[in-house]
């Protein structure tokens, strides 16, 4: 069964509330392909590897978290950007991308989906006074050591995380997928025992050590694999479409 591209995009925009969220890139349809969609291929980033896999899978639409046209980037269509866009246009494939709307969503959002992977009960936002902070706070069903929690992360993510170990048992957790390591100060203020993000910065080590809080960097790509899958599944159910998630490995 096929659905009009315009209908699918309209539903995705509505479901994610993307028009209400200020972002660093355009959210929604970034490249227009054929007018009917039967097969969606989703992935974290619209890399050349994902586009080539989507062509091989005969996708009508590629759905990603990290798309194109970021603020401040060179607007010229040359080099890597030219090759990526040429692939989409040559094969008449649409590109649908959602950044912050996919981090924030209460059902299919990256942060909520990561909590489900790690068996964390969501309690609320990391910083209730600042809606620009997209992280969450939650609790574990029973306390565990930071090393035990890191093992849980490794099993779920399929990769060994970076762990900075504090002195407390882990009961409450703060987290923000991707490049949210800068929110560790909000995590300290929230009184969590461990903060988790995708990446780490040099100063993250000192913040964790000097505030005696455990910290885990589990990978930007690894922590953001689940939201786009959930959104793809939602759209596939909604319109009786085929959906295939393709994970292009990324160690970062």
Automatic annotation (TrEMBL):
Q: Which organism is it from?
A: Pseudomonas protegens (strain DSM 19095 / LMG 27888 / CFBP 6595 / CHA0)
GO CC field: cytoplasm
Q: Which PANTHER family match?
A: GTP CYCLOHYDROLASE 1 TYPE 2 HOMOLOG, NGG1 INTERACTING FACTOR 3
The protein's matches in InterPro entries, at most eight in alphabetical order, are given as: DUF34/NIF3, DUF34/NIF3_sf
Sequence positions that bind a divalent metal cation: 65-66, 103, 220, 224
Give the family, as the similarity comment puts it. Answer: Belongs to the GTP cyclohydrolase I type 2/NIF3 family.
Tell me if Transit peptide is a UniProt keyword of this record.
no
Q: Tell me the NCBIfam families matching this sequence.
A: YbgI_SA1388
In Gene Ontology terms, what is one molecular function of this protein? metal ion binding
**Name of the featured protein:** GTP cyclohydrolase 1 type 2 homolog
Keyword tags: Metal-binding
């Amino acid at each position: 069964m096929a659905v009009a591209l315009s209908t699918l995009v309209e539903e995705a925009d509505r479901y994610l509330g993307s028009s209400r969220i200020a972002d660093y890139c355009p959210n929604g349809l970034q490249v227009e392909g054929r007018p009917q969609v039967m097969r969606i291929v989703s992935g974290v980033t619209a890399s050349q590897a994902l586009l080539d896999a989507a062509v091989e899978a005969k996708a009508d639409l590629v759905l990603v978290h990290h798309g194109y046209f970021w603020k401040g980037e060179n607007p010229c269509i040359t080099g890597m950007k030219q090759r990526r866009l040429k692939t989409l246009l040559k094969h008449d494939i649409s590109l649908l991308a959602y950044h912050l709307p996919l981090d924030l969503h209460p059902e299919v959002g990256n942060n909520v989906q990561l909590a489900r992977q790690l068996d964390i009960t969501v309690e609320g936002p990391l910083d209730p006074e600042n809606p620009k902070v997209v992280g969450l706070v939650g609790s574990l069903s029973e306390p565990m050591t930071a090393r035990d929690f890191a093992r849980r992360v490794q099993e779920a993510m399929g990769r060994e995380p970076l762990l900075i170990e504090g002195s407390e048992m882990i009961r409450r957790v703060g987290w923000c997928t991707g490049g949210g390591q800068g929110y560790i100060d909000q995590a300290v203020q929230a009184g969590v025992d461990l903060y988790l993000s995708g990446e780490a910065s040099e100063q993250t080590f000192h913040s964790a050590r000097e505030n005696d809080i455990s910290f885990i960097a589990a990978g930007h790509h690894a922590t953001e694999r689940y939201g786009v899958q959930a959104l793809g599944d939602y759209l596939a159910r909604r319109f009786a479409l085929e959906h295939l998630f393709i994970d292009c490995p990324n160690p970062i």
